[in-house]
Amino acid sequence: MAKLFLVRHGKSEWNKLGQWTGWTDVELVEEGREEARAAGEFLKDENIDVVYTSDLKRTHQTFEEIKNSTGKNHLTNIPSEALRERHYGIHTGKNKWQVKDEVGEEMFNSIRRGWDTKIPEGETLKDVHTRVMPYYEENIKKDLMSGKNVLVVAHGNTLRALIKHLESLSDLDIENVEVGTGEVHSYSFDENATVLGKEVRGGTVDKK
Q1: What is the C-alpha separation between 32 and 64, in angstroms, rounded?
Q2: Is 107 exposed, middle or buried (0-12, 13-18, 19+ CB in 10 A)?
Q3: What is the pLDDT of residue 207?
Q4: Which of 28, 89, 118, 206 is the most buried (most CB within 10 A)?
Q5: What is the model's pLDDT at position 205?
């Protein structure tokens, strides 16, 4: 039986400010590092064979904190642009709650959590799913089918795209899925990479 651990990076500088970050390469704040260390505590007794991260520094910093807190100093990460956060286009850098006041709650929720809500110059969650899934099939799934335990440290929407696939969620159901900073989603798989079970631990979810 193989396991897949999905971890969202700890709170970043722009998470703390309530700004849409997307592809902007910001650092973790100390609270985010603490969240990452807490995630590491949940993973301390787990065997991890392979680690994938996005190519953005907040996932690398989260992984380093996890590695240090677990004592698994032999691990190295494989970074990829495919695991980047959703590109927020014209909303990048904007304060989320100011945008909510401007566009109204219904449109705000659709922009933030909707499956195919367009953002000028940016991506939808559907677009993220389209770029993440080939990477999952070609790399992560192959590892799982060979019995390896895999850690993926990525972003809220990257992980939501993976969760949609792993749990066969509808386009509407995925709108209700939140992944908190530092949150750990642990899946177990059979030899065909079919999900057998799931556990969620830790994390801080911004419910605003």
Answers
A1: 12
A2: middle
A3: 40
A4: 28
A5: 57
Contact of 184 with 205, CB cutoff 8 Å: no
- Could you tell me the domains of the chain? 14-185 (3.40.50.1240)
pTM beyond 0.85: the answer is yes
Q: Which of 93, 80, 96 is nearest to 153 (CA)?
A: 80
Q: Which residues pair with 79 in a beta bridge?
A: 53
Q: Please give the average pLDDT of every successive group of 10 residues along the chain, which has 208 residues.
A: 97 96 98 97 97 98 97 96 98 95 94 96 98 98 97 98 98 96 97 94 64
9 among known catalytic residues: yes
The residue annotated as part of the active site, out of 35, 65, 85, 183, is 85
* Structure confidence at residue 144 (pLDDT): 97
* Residue-level pLDDT at 203: 73
Catalytic residue among 9, 60, 91, 185: 9
Query: CA 56 → CA 24, 42, 84, 133, distances in Å?
Result: 8, 23, 7, 19
185 is catalytic: no
22 three-class SS: coil
Determine the Cα–Cα distance for residues 70 and 103; give it in Å rounded to an integer: 44
